[in-house]
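[User] Once you have settled down, look closely at the record that follows, and write a paragraph about the fold.
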Amino acid sequence: MHDRRAATAVEYGFILALIVIAMMASLMSVANTTTDMWSNVTNKVQAATQS
């Protein structure tokens, strides 16, 4: 019985690790998109103020 609990705990650990990796990948994608968006805004504001 004790071995099953340990195996279940390990399985839950792997599932949690996969979820964390997926979340980190998603956050990195969102961060890159947000950075690109603000860079675009900065460029447009600079272009508008120079005209």
